[in-house]
Amino acid sequence: MKVILQFIKQLFITNRLVWVMIGITCFFILTYFFTILFELGLILLGLVLLVLLIDVLLLFRQPDALQAKRKMADIFSNGDENKISLELKSFYPFKINVEVLDDIPAQFQERTLQLFIQLKQGETQFLGYTLKPLTRGEYWFGSINCMVSSPLGLAERKFVLPAEKMVMVWPSFHSLRSYELLAHNATTGEVGSRKIRKLGHSLEFEEIKEYVSGDDLRNVNWKATARKGGSLMVNNFMDERSQQVYCLIDKSRVMKMPFEGMSLLDYAINASLVLSRVALVKYDKAGLICFDENRGKMVPADRKGIQMSLLAETLYRQQTNFLEADYEKLVTLVKGRITHRSLLILFTNFESMSSLQRQLPYIRSIAKQHLLLVVFFENTELQKIVQTPVDDLEQLYIKTITEKFITEKRRMVKELQKYGIQSILTPPHLLTTQTINKYLELKARQII
Question: With respect to CATH, is domain 176-197+240-444 assigned 3.40.50.410?
């Protein structure tokens, strides 16, 4: 009985069989008017049933006629395309058509992912697709479901191949390597980087070398030139190292707002991870503070080998809270734990001038002891409304109010500049690029 139930669960009819049966039904209707065709209709029906029986026997003659494996990374990168590969192998003695329905995690809300492939006898092929997670956490993959049909195409056999696996979605790490290269050579026009003319000399001496075109003549070492006898020698300086760079991430309700499926908190977390890596490449110390209505989690700035692992693990566990952040506790934490002048990059969001004014005294207090860079976000949906043509009076009112909100964001930038506080107003999708460019600019100008 169990075998029969399993057989029934695996057996499906195809659209081809449905259309064939509809045709035979129409033929039998025709025999009502032409009775001489009735025997021919019975022959056609018997022939179709015979072919269907043969098709079922071909599909079910082997218990394990199809194998499938899913190959993917154990950890996915949040906000990036992650590759998944399916390996399928056929043991049928004939060519089969396979429709693959992979059981992907519920977070993607994807129920239309269908892949089609043809497999010859004993052939192994690979199918690939990508998934882009938008939230951090645990994602569970289920079984691989395959619908197999023979060249006759009247019936299908369903294979449910176990492939359950859990993957963890961590803050974006796919782009770390590309931004490392950017840190070494900040000239990539695509991301808006450029060489910054240095305003002074670093205090860290590196070497004495021969003059080449482009070297600063003010760095000529005349004593070394005299000893060399004819060749100009110049002092070469390097950027100051071992500066402390802290990412301060606001986890309050203002960072819950979604843009293109991802919350502002996830954008800030991805940017912080990449920025920390760039800082370590530039021989600085990277640290982290995540805060909300409580003092939050802190990772002290360091350059040790496991620093990136500590930062990534801490960022992975952060979640948005629904209360307002307590900046007074943040000031206490910064003054108590960060004793040396450091670059503090504050990721937050202000939707109105009044919300900025409430926190401005605390922000100014931090800026007195450290170089503070405040990063907040443009509302890209408002930009779309402004660019939409106006057709009636109601749309005109909406557009006018929208422009008021956009203008208020720009006033916040000027308000921070009035107190000598660096700031970035950026769309969420450009956050990482804009933040790294600003860090490299501050580094090149030796403001840190």
Answer: yes
- Return the pLDDT at 184: 58
> What is the amino acid identity at position 277?
R
The candidate with the shortest Cα–Cα distance to 143, out of 160, 167, 168, 119, is: 160
DSSP string, 280-330: HHTT-EEEEEEESSS--EEEEEE--TTHHHHHHHHHHT----SSPP-HHHH
The residue type of 207 is E
How confident is the model over 131-142, as pLDDT tens digits?
Answer: 999 999 999 999
The token pair that represents 272 in the structure block: 């912080």
Reference 288, options 355, 353, 339, 343; nearest CA is 343
pLDDT of residue 249: 95
| Every domain of the chain and the residues it spans | 1-19+35-170, 176-197+240-444, 206-238
Q: How many angstroms separate the CA atoms of 441 and 194, rounded?
A: 9
Residue burial 192-223, b: 16+ Cβ < 10 Å; e: rest: ebeeeeeeeeeeeeeeeeebeeeeeeeeebee
The reported pLDDT for the residue numbered 204 is 55
DSSP designation for 214 = T
DSSP assignments along 140-165, one per residue: EE-PEEEEEE-TT-SEEEEEEE---E
CB 107 within 8 A of CB 131: no
Tell which CATH architecture fits domain 1-19+35-170.
Answer: Sandwich (2.60)
Long-range CB contact pairs, 398-406, < 8 A, 24+: 405/351, 405/379, 406/378, 406/379, 406/382
412, two tokens: 């916040």
> Which residue type does 34 have?
F
pLDDT at 223: 75
**Secondary structure element (H or E) that encloses residue 125, with its range:** strand 124-131
DSSP 135: S
Tell me the pLDDT tens digit for each residue of 10-39.
899 899 999 999 999 998 888 888 888 888
pTM of this prediction? 0.79
Measured in whole angstroms, the distance separating CA 145 from the mean position of its chain's CA atoms is 27
Cα separation values, 64 from 10, 67, 160, 414, Å: 13, 7, 11, 69
